Every structure is written in structure tokens, then in C-alpha cells.
Amino acid sequence: AFVxxxxxxxxxxxxKEEQIRRKKREDRLEKIRHNVQLKYAAKRKRSExxxxxxxxxxxxxxxxxxxxxxxxxxxxxxxxxxxxAEYESDDEKKVVSGLEDDDDLEEEHVTKIxxxxxxxxxxxxFVREVQKSPFGKDTRLVxxxxxxxxxxxxxxxxxxxxxxxxxxxxEMLEEQS
Length: 177
Prior knowledge:
By secondary structure, this protein is an all-alpha fold. It has a domain at 111-177. The protein has eight helices and no strands. The chain is flat. Residues 92-104 have low confidence and may be disordered.
């Protein structure tokens, strides 16, 4: 009886730990989803900073050469107005996102299913069926080999809708025959 109760307590403890890990993981995923816009803003800021650095370098060249006519001719009309004196803010070096703090969370064991098929329609059908199933809400899945993801023809990729892509692809295959 003692051994059985100890096993039950151990099992309850393991389940509680697993539930805590799962909750932390879900919180982390939710935080990542909400920070997508923040990431894009940070990327735009980095590209703007790169452009500013380039203009600062050009400014230094203009100042150091004394003869800035050649450098000014390389600039667009709009860029001439942007040549700046060097300025660096204290805030420029701050990290925008705090996602790196969660690196200590360990990845829990997740069951993974790999479904392979020769036809794109079967892949699409499998994805739809999983999403409609009772497990659809809790299941994450990625279609790795669809025409939508792997098509190299710009004209076909611009169609957007999977059915239109499949139809156009089939037409092109028939034209080759």
C-alpha cells in the first residue's frame, strides 16, 4: 500500500511539473506571437540605422576630403538633405525584445507525425482533416512540400489560392506533353 501511494504521489508530482512546463511553453509561444509586430518594427529600425550609418560615413568622407563635389554627385537628390553630423543616442544600443530571457526553458517531448505523399492534393486534404479533427486546436502542423510553398514560377505563385495554383500547374504540365 505504501509503495502504491508513493508511486501515485510521484505520478502526481510529474504531472504537475509537466503541466507547469507546458504552461510556461504556452506563455512563451503566446508572447512570441504577440511580439511579431515588435520584431518587424525592430527590423525596420535596424535597416534605418544601417542607412543612417551609410550617410554618416559619406558625411565623414565629404568632410575629410574637403572636395565633396564627387561624393555629393553619387547621392540621390533626397539623400543630399540627409547628410548629418555624427550623433549617437543612449537608447540606440538597447535590445528591443526580451525573448532571449526564455532560453532556459527546456523543450518538452512532443509527438511528431510526418505524413508523406506524392500528390499535393493529398497533403492539403490531410492538413484540412487534421484541422477539422478534435485535435485540430492543439495540433501544430506545417505542410513542407506544397506547390504553394515550393513553386518557382512567379506567374503561378501570384495566384495565391491553392486551387488556382494547382489548376494552373496542371495546365502547364499538360502543355508540356
